[in-house]
Amino acid sequence: MEKTKSSIFDQTALHGGRKLKNRLVVAPLTRKSATLEGVPTQEMADYYGAFAKGGFGMIISEGTYTDDLFSQSDIGQPGITNEAQMLGWQNVAENVHRYDAVFINQLMHAGALGQLREENIAPSAVQPIGERSPEPGGATGPYPMPEAMEYSDFETVRQGYVQAAILSRKAGFDGIEIHAANGYLFDQFVTEHTNLRTDRYGGYVRNRLRFLMEVYQAVRDALPPDFIVGIRLSESKVNDLKYRWPGGSQTATEIFSVLSEIQPDYFHIASEGGSWKRESLYADGLSSTGIAKRLTKVPIIANGGLHDIELAESLIASDQADLISIGRAAIANPDWPDRILKGQATIPFFKELIKPSLTLGHAQRVLTQYRHQNAPNVLM
Question: What percent of the chain has pLDDT over 70?
Fold first, then answer.
């Protein structure tokens, strides 16, 4: 008897009727392969195009900085602040669209977690936990104490996101994702210990979500209705993998009850630690993805070890997710959907594929060499 095709390959649609050929999404993956000026390269066009050619229905870009003041996190990070960067992304988008994939630009502001300078901005003057990543050309050691944002900074960030979204549409993206996860600027507002403000942007959950909601609305108002605008959230952070929302499912309920008012085209709930069960599933049996789905009534993208097909299918079947984003398994297998459909072997992820400063081309050669040397004939 022929095996029934997995539900992860069902055609689906985002709000606004934008159709996806399947439920599989490439998660945003930091690669740092743009020029020093933040311009996407042909190497990046080939990299993103490989995911589209490999069968993914939607691809979300790596974090893209939104202004030239404080938003950039790393050397080699792409931006979307000027014509040259926009044209670089246009080349990438054209490559992705050759294979009928939806392409989303993740817009990101580093806030206190900027790696490049000794002056950063944040909701409050709170020194981040941990230390900066040792990258060539970047700063090292503890994160510096950021300056608390003044109201003029709020307007600068807001306008940066609006202009970045407009340029993303001009570049040919199908939508944008506001990065409010993983410890970066908007997450710093959401998190109690990094947001000590006593004005309308601090204190209660609604206040701590206010700036994110304002920026979302400003972006939404600047774009046509058919342009996708999603939001990414997480509990853990790049500099604090063990952090979880205090109160577990109760806190998740409070957060998504407030965010249900803005109705983005999707919520992408990320797991920086790489496990949906560890980060999204609470002790009471509820999950952040399930709570978000129930309260917001918009499509939910789940993330975290979901190359485990049985787990991915169970989240869809139990109405805890609509789409499944895959990160490390996609790096090792840009053609992961096609391989699964054909019953072919997949390559397990290994750290050599994301070594600091490893170019995308070199990573591809490492992957090709691995395949030739191992030639696995069973599904891993």
Answer: 88
